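Quick start: read one record
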Amino acid sequence: MGNEARFVNDYRGIRPKPNAQFLDRWTAGGDLRMCIWSLSGGIRKGDEIVVSYGKAWWAARSLS
């Protein structure tokens, strides 16, 4: 279930820094979509796509 974004992981333990980020963008039709954009270093063939989940995500997980 879900879309391709389910394969995007947090960079911690995988790479020194993220190679992508999530951004909200509006389509020409007026729909809000979440997109994944590569950062300045780019993503090479075979690289895992990793982002920063953010401090709030990790703080919420540690309460469980």
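The mean pLDDT is 90.
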